[in-house]
């Protein structure tokens, strides 16, 4: 019997996790990524124990746990340095069933790619969802080299998802959350520090260690949308956080202006009517963009495709295009299951 086919649009964390999960279940996978190459972009990403357990489904959980860097104390502080609350890594790991792992996003992408066969990820390939398919026909995706059909298409193409617009053209899309963020990854400062997040009035700063010896720092501030510093973003950070407690000044002293990433935060204020249509399903920011203040925006895509075997069935019956439709939607049953599993809050 021919392998069922799946096309994944987007080679981010969610798309690659979905591809790895489907590959382990016997699907033929192609990941279509418009970027010319998978470059080490982005900054840090936090993986809580529930995300790590989801990654166990693709044999990646232990690799991620081995990258845990937080040892000892840490907590929440005021800009002047006073501790508002304290915690330690051992107690946190015991309470939640594992360590909190912070790693560079590029490291996680490399680990996910290692779980896929050579040639599955096709970079430099812009893809358009031309037809979501239905119970009686496959979905169709168009690229520069022609049309591609599959029993499943996963739109994991980010917050400005073209796949989402193709499925739900009347949806207004994401809305500005009211704050902007900055992120940097630098060598560790000379003076040791305890990991912390610091809360000021309308501003947040965090400094966290990475396993490779570098430091991930992030900041957020209430600001109008689309803003940019009049000089450079490092200077803006100095104006906003330069007088905060140590190690914030040390981190800023080590930052080069070109290394500062700034992004406005957007979220899906109006939920989609569904996370799928026909044989096409949405994943991650394409489906439910959320602000990082809830501590799960970046990791929810990794939990979605790998954490439940009922979401991705091992293989359809022969022939692959004849899943019985559900009465309410006319869609193949597995994609209806997927929508039902994703609808309640995690």
Helices and strands, with pairings:
Blueprint: E1 5-9, H1 13-24, E2 28-32, E3 44-47, H2 49-55, H3 61-65, E4 73-77, E5 83-88, H4 89-96, E6 101-104, H5 105-113, E7 121-122, E8 128-131, E9 139-143, E10 146-150, E11 152-155, H6 162-167, E12 175-187, E13 196-200, E14 203-209, E15 214-222, H7 233-241, H8 248-253, E16 261-267, E17 276-277, E18 280-282, H9 285-288, H10 300-306, H11 333-342
Parallel strand pairs: 1-2, 1-11, 2-7, 4-13, 11-18
Antiparallel strand pairs: 3-6, 4-5, 8-9, 9-10, 12-15, 12-16, 13-14, 14-15, 17-18
Helix pairs in contact: 1-5, 1-10, 2-10
Written account of the structure:
With 346 residues, the protein is α/β, with parallel strands linked by helices. The protein has two domains: 5-72 and 103-174 and 269-342, 3-Layer(bba) Sandwich (FAD/NAD(P)-binding domain), CATH 3.50.50; 175-267, D-Amino Acid Oxidase, Chain A, domain 2. The protein has eleven helices and 18 strands. The strands form four sheets. It has a seven-stranded mixed sheet. It is globular, with a radius of gyration of 21 Å. Mean pLDDT is 87; it is low at 307-330.
Largest sheet: number of strands, sense, barrel closure: 7 strands, mixed
Number of helices: 11
Order of helices and strands: EHEEHHEEHEHEEEEEHEEEEHHEEEHHH
So, CATH architecture of the largest domain? 3-Layer(bba) Sandwich
In one word, what is the shape?
globular
User: How big is the Rg?
Assistant: 21 Å
Q: Uncertain spans, ≥5 residues at pLDDT below 50?
A: 307-330
- Beta strand count: 18
> Which range best describes the helical content: under 10%, 10-25%, 25-40%, 40-55%, 55-70% or over 70%?
10-25%
Q: Averaging pLDDT over every residue, what do you get?
A: 87
From the N-terminal CA to the C-terminal CA, the straight-line distance is 36 Å
- Can you tell me the number of structural domains? 2
Give the CATH superfamily of the largest domain: FAD/NAD(P)-binding domain
**Within the CATH hierarchy, at the fold level, what is the topology of the largest domain?**
FAD/NAD(P)-binding domain
Q: Which strand-content bin applies to the residues?
A: 25-35%
Strand neighbour order, sheet with most strands: 5-4-13-14-15-12-16
Q: What is the C-level CATH assignment of the largest domain?
A: Alpha Beta
Helix/strand class: alpha/beta
Region (Disordered): 295-328
Biased composition (Low complexity): 299-310
Biased composition (Pro residues): 311-327
Domain FAD-binding: 6-295
């Amino acid at each position: 019997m021919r392998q069922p086919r799946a096309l994944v649009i987007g080679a981010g964390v969610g798309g690659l996790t979905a591809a790895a999960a489907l590959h382990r279940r016997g699907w033929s996978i192609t990941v279509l990524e418009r970027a010319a190459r998978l470059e080490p972009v982005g900054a840090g990403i936090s993986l809580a124990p529930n995300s790590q357990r989801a990654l166990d489904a693709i044999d990646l959980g232990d690799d991620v746990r081995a990258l845990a860097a937080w040892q000892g104390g840490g907590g929440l502080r005021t800009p002047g340095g006073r501790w508002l609350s304290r915690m330690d890594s051992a107690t946190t790991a015991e309470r939640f069933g594992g360590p909190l792992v912070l790693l560079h996003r590029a490291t996680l992408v490399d680990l996910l790619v290692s779980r896929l066969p050579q040639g599955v990820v096709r970079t430099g390939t812009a893809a358009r969802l031309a037809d979501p398919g239905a119970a009686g026909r496959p979905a169709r995706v168009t690229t520069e080299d022609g049309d591609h059909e599959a029993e499943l298409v996963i739109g994991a193409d980010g917050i400005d998802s073209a796949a989402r617009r193709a499925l739900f053209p009347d949806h207004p899309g994401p809305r500005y959350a009211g704050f902007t963020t900055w992120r940097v990854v630098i060598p560790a400062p000379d003076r040791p520090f305890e990991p912390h997040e610091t809360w000021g009035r309308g501003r947040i700063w965090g400094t966290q260690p990475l396993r490779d010896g570098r430091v991930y720092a992030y900041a957020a501030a209430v600001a109008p949308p689309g803003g940019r510093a009049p000089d450079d973003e490092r200077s803006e950070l100095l104006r906003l956080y330069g007088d905060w407690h140590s190690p914030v000044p040390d981190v800023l002293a080590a930052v080069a202006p070109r290394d500062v990433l700034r992004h406005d935060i957007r979220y899906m204020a109006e939920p989609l009517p569904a996370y799928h249509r026909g044989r096409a399903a949405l994943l991650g920011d394409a489906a439910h963009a959320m602000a990082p203040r809830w501590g799960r925006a970046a990791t929810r895509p990794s939990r979605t495709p790998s954490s439940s075997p009922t979401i991705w069935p091992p293989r359809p019956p022969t022939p692959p295009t004849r899943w019985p439709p559900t009465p309410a939607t006319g869609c193949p049953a597995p994609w209806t299951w997927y929508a039902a599993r994703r609808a309640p809050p995690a």
